[in-house]
Specification:
Low-confidence stretches: none
Oligomer: single chain
Strand order of the largest sheet: 1-3-2
Shape: elongated
Mean pLDDT: 85
Number of domains: 2
Order of helices and strands: HEHEEHHHHEE
Distance between the termini: 31 Å
Helix content: 55-70%
Number of strands: 5
């Protein structure tokens, strides 16, 4: 069984048994997550959010069942058209046996992938945490310098650490801004989540 088939099998198992789905594939590309979310949305789910878990910041992509009438109608239509999705069998929007979108689905998968990337960058850019790391490291190096006598090494590090954290925040902000432009051009609307972070939601489809 291919990696794509394993991903699809695991996804369809969750779709059949849960109202909330979490995709965790540590080595998967974002496009893979985008394709899996697309398939899940064909069966009545909607993309919810991204979490970065643990010290290695493993991505967890979360979806929930969409109770809206159009989502239920879409799920019913795809269940009828693709009644037995899985290894060696077709799934909505993908070439057989892969997670490569067909041309008709590519645009939607690209938008979903951009949303996931935007949210992941937002989750990674905890300004307070990064600045605390930068200034805390600087304070530690300044404290250690007179104790160890290694001024030539520790004093430059005390300056560099806050600058590195600020640089990381600026780079993150630029990347998110570019993604925001793409999402806005695709018709998505900016919103604020419970934590105050900017996210984007797609327009409610009028058909499928």
């Amino acid at each position: 069984m291919s990696i794509a088939d394993r991903h699809i099998t695991a996804l369809m198992r969750q779709i059949a048994t849960r109202d909330a789905i979490e995709l965790v594939h540590p080595f998967a590309e974002l496009q893979t997550f985008g394709a899996l979310v697309y398939i899940a949305e064909c069966y009545g789910f909607r993309y919810e959010s991204v979490r970065l878990v643990g010290k290695h910041r493993v991505m967890h992509v979360q979806l929930v069942r969409d109770p809206s009438p159009w989502a239920r109608q879409k799920a019913a239509a795809n269940s009828a058209a693709f009644p037995d999705p899985g290894p060696g069998r077709p799934v909505p929007g993908m070439y057989l046996g892969s997670l490569t979108p067909v041309p008709e689905a590519q645009g939607d998968v690209d938008v979903i992938t951009a949303m996931i990337r935007h949210d992941a960058l937002g989750a990674a850019a905890n300004r307070k945490q990064l600045l605390a790391i930068g200034w805390g490291s600087a304070a530690l190096f300044l404290l250690m310098a007179p104790l160890t006598g290694t001024y030539a090494v520790l004093l430059p590090l005390a300056v560099l650490m806050p600058l590195l954290m600020l640089g990381a925040l600026r780079l993150n902000t630029r990347r998110r801004a570019k993604l925001a432009q793409r999402l806005t051009a695709a018709g998505c609307t900016p919103v604020r989540d419970a934590a105050g972070r900017e996210r984007y939601v797609r327009p409610v489809p009028q058909g499928f």
